[in-house]
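Supplementary notes for students who missed Thursday's class. We covered one full example, reproduced here. Read the sequence, then the structure, then the short commentary at the end.
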Amino acid sequence: MSKKLRGTPDRVWLAGLGALAVAEQEGNDLFQQLVEKGREFADTGNKKVSANMAEFMDLLGRVKVRVGNHKAAPASARPHPLAEVQSAPRAVQKSSRSMDREAVAARQAKRLERAQKAVLKEFGSLDKPADFERLQRERRIFTVVHRNTTYVPSFQLDEAGHPRPAVAKVIQILEGDTSDWGLALWFTAANGWLDGKRPVDLLKDAPEEVIQAAEQEAAELVF
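Structure (token representation):
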């Protein structure tokens, strides 16, 4: 076999690379044995083989074997070579997704805050009807709370200060699926069922259209 190896230095080089791969799998003891055998062979081989082996020995000396002093796990128990590479991106992706969710939540909170301020700027009122508590209890009107202050959105009342019947009807339709702030934002946002108009702008002249839009909204929420 020695004669065959001396005649094929390229194969010796490839065999050495294979030995390094095996050493990485089987453990540090085998690696040390290969190093010693390689030195012995380099001392007795011809110059060409010795040169190749010397180069390979130098490579072995510079490469840090990743296995510890323990025996490697059986091949069947070892993870796929890509497992370590793939697991890191998954961890990064998981962290990234968590950060993305937090960023999205923060942006949504800011948008909600701006929307609430816009509603209060246009319709916020601290004035309450004389029978405010009864009307609220009967769900003929609703209130919103912002920074510990309670407001009665003014669009719920007509010019005489009476609650609009359409508002009570919308509350009845939507309150099971949305909060009081959700109701305020629904009334003051552009609505596709109203050709992009805001329900609040139609309460006086087209209350039935507002009620129909609420019914359509409720049907979408159900299905």
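Commentary. The first strand starts at residue 144 and ends at 146. The radius of gyration is 39 Å. If anything here is unclear, bring it to office hours.
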